[in-house]
Amino acid sequence: MHRKRLAVALAAMLTLSTVAAACGDDDSGDEAESTTTTEKTTTTEAAAAATAPEDNGGRKDGDGTLTFGAVLPQTGKLAQLGPPMIEATQMAIRDINAADGILGKQVSVSVKDDGGDSNVDLAKTNVDQLINNDKVDAIIGAAPSGTTKEIIDKITDSGTVECSPSNTGSDLTTWKDKGLYFRTPPPDNLQAQALAKAISDDGKQSVAIIAQNSDYGTGFVRFLEPALKDAGVDVAESISYDSNATSFDTEVEQVAAAKPDGVALIGYPEDGGLVLKGMIQKDLGPDKVSIYVTDGMQSNELYKAVDSTDPASTEGLRGTAPSAAPTTGAEFFPDEFKTFAPDVASPIFSAQAYDCVVVIALAAEQAKSDAPFEIAKVINEISGGAEGAEKCSTFKDCKALIADGTAINYEGASGALDFTEYGEPSAGEYEVYTFGADGTYETDDRVTVAS
């Protein structure tokens, strides 16, 4: 049985009650499957199986050389968010090879386009090439949760490890992935709490939500609405929009009719920028009503989708996003990344991409194998799961500890991962940021939320 599902099923068996999968969108109607149980002869056998990836098909044997692939945005709606993840992936490969690689050999990565949530067929084609032609052992990406849902079965059925640096969809927590899927950002159920806190802390009492009608948008709203209510903020209106539309007059009029003192806008730069443009035209810009966004719109180039001639068009816009430079993150990373990728406009998800690569590489070193299932077996362990493990923050230092036979707890660029049995962080540190007159954002607060 799938290790994630079995862990939940085992808990249900021991407590003699049915327990829902933690943090999942069980009633969302998405593709995540319901929890099932399998008979085990003893509790000990069940517990052992709960932590092991399900090795039933796909490539299992390594060839001694760890090979990465990446499917990250180069075109489409998320093209602005691709460069920090792509550059951070390349930086991690550089650092691994500078420390003599993995299993005594240099590692490499082939980077391809995931279509930026605009071309799922391109993502599928590129995944096929990575798996069948490049014979990669691990894939970094995709960036959008919706795209990952379209390719995750193809990747895990082939026996390939997958780690996303930006998937935040909560229903991926309990996806039937054979124990081969991991992610370094925390899921949206945690960010929803961070955004609600930021809105509440600003003294807002009535908020209208306008979100793209997608896995990302509707999935986020599912958690944001109750989080706002728990924070004492009334949800005056909740509206969804077609991200492929070119005009949002009807939706903006609904926002105006609600007369909120705050608006939560959940989208991507391309479509969210057009919504914001429509709000400004209706005298509902950030200078008139407080507008809050999330990681999907955290871009220093967001103003280009609103008014390409006026960087100040986004001034006053506030938002939350998983921290690119968390207080618990490795001190070297922010400055080193700026040096490595000086032309990248924003570091969003760069730390998470770096950690995806490094944690897979360290797992291969720990397992003494580049076989994907062997790598997957130890990722949770080296990311905070082993009691008494020694903390380390760089690939070089962690590799040296592994060579000495010391159990490690990798706390990397994106902070203390502390992976749960679901292969994702158990807590998240979020930036609260505000856009200035020059079109760029600055972090002015941080919020930590635990599952």
Task: Describe this structure as you would to a colleague.
The protein is globular, with a radius of gyration of 21 Å. With 451 residues, it is α/β, with parallel strands linked by helices. Strand 3, helix 5 and strand 4 (161-164) form a beta-alpha-beta unit. It has 14 helices and 15 strands. Helix 3 (82-98) runs parallel beside helix 12, helix 4 packs parallel to helix 5 (145-157) and helix 12 packs parallel to helix 14. It folds into 3 domains: 3-50, no CATH class; 67-186 and 330-378, Response regulator (Rossmann fold), CATH 3.40.50; 189-325 and 428-450, Rossmann fold. The two termini are 25 Å apart. Strands 7-6-8-9-10-14-15 form a 7-stranded mixed sheet, sandwiched between helices. Strands 2-1-3-4-5 form a 5-stranded parallel sheet, sandwiched between helices.
Total helical segments: 14
Write the element-wise H/E pattern from the N-terminal end onward.
Answer: HHEHEHEHEEHEHEHEHEHEHHHEHEEEE
**Sheet/helix structural class:** alpha/beta
Uncertain spans, ≥5 residues at pLDDT below 50?
A: 1-51
Percent of residues in β-strands: 15-25%
SSE order and pairing:
Layout: H1 3-15, H2 43-50, E1 67-72, H3 82-98, E2 108-113, H4 120-133, E3 138-141, H5 145-157, E4 161-164, E5 181-183, H6 188-201, E6 206-212, H7 215-230, E7 234-241, H8 249-258, E8 262-266, H9 269-281, E9 290-293, H10 303-307, E10 318-322, H11 333-340, H12 350-367, H13 372-385, E11 390-392, H14 395-403, E12 408-412, E13 415-416, E14 427-435, E15 441-450
Parallel strand pairs: 1-2, 1-3, 3-4, 4-5, 6-7, 6-8, 8-9, 9-10, 11-12
Antiparallel strand pairs: 10-14, 12-13, 14-15
Helix pairs in contact: 1-2, 3-12, 4-5, 6-7, 12-13, 12-14
